[in-house]
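Running co-folding for guanosine-5'-triphosphate.
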Amino acid sequence: MQQGKVIKAVGGFFTVRDQKGSEYLCRARGSLKKGKQTLIVGDEVIFNPHQEPSEESSGEGVIEKVLPRANYFPRPPVANVDQIVVVMSLKNPGCDWQMISRMAVMAEKENLPVLVCLNKTDLISREKLDQVYKDIEPYPYPVIFTSALSGDGTVNLKERLAGCCSALGGPSGVGKSTLLNCIQPGLSLQTAEVSEKIGRGKHTTRQAALLPLNNGGTVVDTPGFTRLDFKNLKPGQLAGCFPELEELRGRCGFRDCMHLNEPNCAVTEELNKTLNPMRYEHYKFFMKELSQRR
Ligand SMILES: Nc1nc2c(ncn2[C@@H]2O[C@H](COP(=O)(O)OP(=O)(O)OP(=O)(O)O)[C@@H](O)[C@H]2O)c(=O)[nH]1
Ligand SMILES: [Mg+2]
Ligand SMILES: [Zn+2]
């Protein structure tokens, strides 16, 4: 028996990398499937190697057991990551701030740190960029600006990915795979132009894959998505997934303040001061969505 990590999952086959870096194409033991245990990229597993890898081909084996997950991020499904990098482009497709907040909420629910990466800086003017700086003042997450085309900011991005496991997520066409190719050319990930007609990506990356970086980090490149629904989130849990609201909670008049129309609410008092109004709008929007769902 050996321990390894699932680095790819396609149609019931799992690529498992062991601690020495050898790869095995594995099936899951029947009892795992019966137990409705799903295996996802990032899972640590115990597997039985049937065939050792050779020069020409990867090894083969059977996964016997999945080790408990430190965390689980549902969209894209990945396990045991250390941070979520929300990638968005500033143009083509345009930046969807609400989607950034949506992904951040899901990460917060799993206690995962969030890094926001705004890509394609080469496509917008200096003035527009200055406006973006203003829009995110203040902002509860670190934001880095990159251009995979010119290379601007990509060294910074790579440094942020060193020594930990990061999942890159975001809509199709924002440049997730291009950024990874830029910071490590050998990866040769497939990329494709954004459709001129609809201004959206073409869903080029089809499966999540865990990739080692030469700075000790690992990254999961994931397929882009267009929609993201909150699953298993109750309205009462939402404020806890906005760090800037959570920080103010102790100062609200009511202990279970939802920060909507309550009197003596520290959040409504701090709006436009230490709180970003855009983020508060997202909070109200998500709150409505969660309340209507019930
Ligand atoms: N101008 C410009 N184009 C970029 C930049 N980064 C990526 N692109 C282009 O954007 C398009 C989409 O890039 P991808 O890397 O395939 O996007 P993705 O986020 O991986 O998309 P999916 O795999 O579909 O989720 C490609 O044509 C890239 O060349 C950038 O910084 N500037
Ligand atoms: Mg891609
Ligand atoms: Zn309040």
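Result summary
The two ends are 46 Å apart (CA to CA).
The chain is about 25% helix and 25% strand.
Job closed.
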